[in-house]
Amino acid sequence: xxxxxxxxxxxxxxxxxxxxxxxxxxxxxxxxxxxxxxxxxxxxxxxxxxxxxxxxxxxxxxxxxxxxxxxxxxxxxxxxxxxxxxxxxxxxxxxxxxxxxxxxxxxxxxxxxxxxxxxxxxxxxxxxxxxxxxxxxxxxxxxxxxxxxxxxxxxxxxxxxxxxxxxxxxxxxxxxxxxxxxxxxxxxxxxxxxxxxxxxxxxxxxxxxxxxxxxxxxxxxxxxxxxxxxxxxxxxxxxxxxxxxxxxxxxxxxxxxxxxxxxxxxxxxxxxxxxxxxxxxxxxxxxxxxxxxxxxxxxxxxxxxxxxxxxxxxxxxxxxxxxxxxxxxxxxxxxxxxxxxxxxxxxxxxxxxxxxxxxxxxxxxxxxxxxxxxxxxxxxxxxxxxxxxxxxxxxxxxxxxxxxxxxxxxx
Length: 411
What we know:
- This protein is mainly alpha-helical.
- It has a single domain, classed as Growth Hormone, Chain: A, CATH 1.20.1250.
- The chain contains 15 helices and no strands.
- It has helices at about 20-30, 35-40, 45-55, 55-85, 85-105, 110-125, 125-175, 175-195, 210-225, 230-255, 260-290, 290-315, 320-345, 355-375, 385-405.
- Helix 1 (about 20-30) packs antiparallel against helix 8 and helix 4 runs antiparallel to helix 7.
- About 60% of the residues are buried.
- Mean pLDDT is about 80; it is low at about 1-15.
- It is a multi-pass membrane protein.
- This is Bcr/CflA family efflux transporter.
- One of its GO terms (cellular component) is plasma membrane.
- InterPro entries: Efflux_drug-R_Bcr/CmlA (IPR004812), MFS (IPR011701), MFS_dom (IPR020846), MFS_trans_sf (IPR036259), Tet-R_TetA/multi-R_MdtG-like (IPR001958).
């Protein structure tokens, strides 16, 4: 029985789209984008949040790190639950929690309250990326899913490209709370479309009830695999460099270089277009070059871009373009590496794709959160700590890929 089939439709399924249709793929991409939207849209509001709540940069940055920690932990639950009960009901539950906590965040009256609600928002929103990846794997199989994840990455990048621009204007005109009201409306629309237009993608006979012992066995199998940890680390290190930029860039661009919130969104759009270029390149070339060669190309670009930014910061080149242009190169590499590394990690484990996606997401988000905290702790008012972090993450991406190539069997 092919792995790309969904459950056999019953009478209640007649109104839903074909699992392989463009509409279904677009809806899944929109749900995967909830994570980047909830991360990126409120970045221009960081300085305003500092002023309104009388908080330090480190306290504001913690709302982002806490979000990532919650995002990581929840994936460990969503993956196994979806392997047992199916992707759709678990994803709907996560979206409902995201909706409720987004409404709460819009009414927060303290930094502590906002941080707690950001944690709850993450616990709900993480269902989108982890189960969206698994649904694409269910529908399209291992090879085609790599191509689809690249194109979904391109489409996904449009939302975070626009999000900081929109967030910057909303912050200036309506205040930071309007951003969370927008996220609430986005989640409500996602619930409606998922509930009425997307079928369950997991085979009924592929589901299993994972006891704690079986779950630990599955995680151990993934961690002991010859290649899975290195695909995961390659993906995680390159993402941690991206998160270093998310953590530090609002303060570097708005406070240090003196640009307004709206201008920050425009700079951020350039970064996202670099990511989109990478995903488009990967989507077009993956069948010709293969996953590993593409990852190697992307890792070289990430290491080169990150290393250039770190060098310019050490040389005290005091220009916003000394940050933006190297990071565009880094993001082209990121757009190539991330979808291919995810597909490479998921390919050997179709029967536990949800669990595999969950553990990958947990490692990725935990590492990124830790790096983001360090960027905030060592921020000295200049681009230095952020740039050094991005340079280090690009180098570690390349090192992880080198180990991956070394460990791959000659055949």
